[in-house]
Model the fold of this input.
Amino acid sequence: MVTDGAVHVLIPTPLRRFTAGEAKVVSAGATVNELLDNLGAGFPGLGERLRDDDGQIRRFVNIFVNGSNIRELQGADSPLHAGDEVGIIPAMAGGR
Done:
């Protein structure tokens, strides 16, 4: 269980199969990259859904820290602090 530097991560429905159905998990990391490393280690299969083979966040995955898209911050190097809320939002596609 993570307590120091705990970050709350909102898991979208399509990825909850990797978190035993949990909609919110607690993890840690000084940056988004470290958080993703820890999520991948703690929830096997989740990391591959968020990053490509080169370790880059997949284009169709949006990550928000306290409501701000990390692409508008410092990307995967965006810093995290205890109590932050990170939302993982897969992009939707479709239509005509």
Notes: The mean pLDDT is 92. Residues 6-90 form a domain with the Ubiquitin-like (UB roll) fold (CATH 3.10.20.30). Residues 6 and 82 are 5 Å apart (CA to CA).
